[in-house]
Amino acid sequence: MTTIIRATDSAEFLSLIPQIAGFTPRRSLVLMPFHGKRTHGALRVDLPGPEVDPVQVADSMCGLVEQIGGVDAVAIVVYTDDVAQSTPDGLLLPHLALADVLATTLHDEGFHIVESLCVTASGWGDYFDDAPRLRPLSSIPQPPEVIGVGDVSGDQLTGAILPSSDLVERERVGRALRDLGAVLAGESAGADPGVILMAASTLEDLPCFFEDLLDHPDDLDPLEPAALLWCLNRPTLRDAALVQWATDIDGGAEALEAQLAFSGSGTPVPDAVGETFLGQGPRPDADRLGCALTIVRHAASRAPRGAKPGALTAAAWLSWALGRSSHAGAYVDQVLEIDPQHSMAALLNTMLGAAILPQWLMQRP
Fold first, then answer.
1. Angle, CA 191 vertex, CA 189 and CA 195 arms, to 5°
2. SS3 of residue 75 by DSSP
3. CB 73, CB 113: distance < 8 Å
4. Closest to 317 measured CA to CA, from 340, 351, 287, 283
5. Distances from the Cα of 82 to the Cαs of 15, 49, 93, 256, 312, in angstroms?
């Protein structure tokens, strides 16, 4: 997202960050890349602990900024629960060393530093002040609700909690998933006739099934989540669905054919399919990814515990593709709690730990 910043002072600037990020950061390091007066969104990582070398953090964050075309300035904001320390030389803001190293690294690479601020639980301050002082948090204007986002007062994990589902919903999906597995294993005796029909129609045209779900993401009947869960717990079908949701139905059909050929005979997957999965190539439609994320979140919320990993992994990848790495990390953690050996979750966990972002997020809209 590109937004024109019109802030008259640092307090007003701080009030804009939740609007741009879609949440109010906590225990976070946030960089706001600028091209002139336009910001290209917010880059957020968890605030590193004292054992982490600030130079390493600065180099990593600077590398991310350099991937965004046209950036000429950066704002730095540290959000921390630590308190400022009073010393004989004056007030010492938390994480001063990190902020100084980061500002110096970015400046040496040619970026102008717009702001370097620290927000604590008891106030906020400016790292560039010769005599730092804490201003009250009440001096930061309250962010309004953002169209398409809503309330942004929650932290970076707000929105990662799965939708609520009642016991009846979960039992119906669980029975449908059990019957579906039996039908597809050739044991249809006693299965729900609707499940038999769903099994036939789903397997007949998987790209069509994945595409049709996008038309009613908030209104899935129990058989649809069951069929989707069955697919998402099979890596070949899961990866094809993710590529399709990031491209279109033709891209999904190509990805499915390529994945089946690879799993069957080891035929190499076309570069275009692999690049999409790795976050390369044209920027996907954010609304399309958002609909897909809604669908897999609903499926995960209704799934039996053992059937959740596929949907949660899909939710992690879709969140990562949308630039919501914090949410992606929360879903990955849930997968690894259920299945510590889950290969896709482990891969995503490594990518998130290395702060690897999709290249399309670095493209200027």
1. 135
2. strand
3. yes
4. 351
5. 20, 11, 9, 49, 33
3-state secondary structure of 63: helix
What is each CA distance from 331 to 199, 285, 353, in whole angstroms? Answer: 28, 22, 14
Enumerate residues 6+ apart whose C-beta is below 8 A from 286.
322
The count of other CB atoms within 10 Å of the CB of residue 282 is: 11
**Is 313:342 a contact under the CB 8 Å cutoff?**
yes
β-pair partners for 322 = none
* Angle at which helices 308-321 and 223-232 cross, to 10°: 80
Predicted confidence (pLDDT) per residue in 88-126, tens digit: 888 999 999 999 999 999 999 999 999 999 999 999 999
Angstrom distance (rounded) from CA 271 to CA 159: 33
pLDDT for 295 beyond 60:
yes
State the greatest distance between any 2 C-alpha atoms of the chain, in Å, as a whole number: 81
Q: Check: CB of residue 111 under 8 Å from CB of residue 71.
A: yes
Cα–Cα distance for residue pair 353/93, rounded to 1 Å? 27
Q: Take residue 66 and report the two structure tokens written for it.
A: 């350099």
pLDDT at 272: 82
* Side-chain half-sphere CA neighbours of 271 within 13 A: 1
Entry field: residues in the chain: 365
Judge whether 156 and 323 are in contact, CB under 8 Å.
no
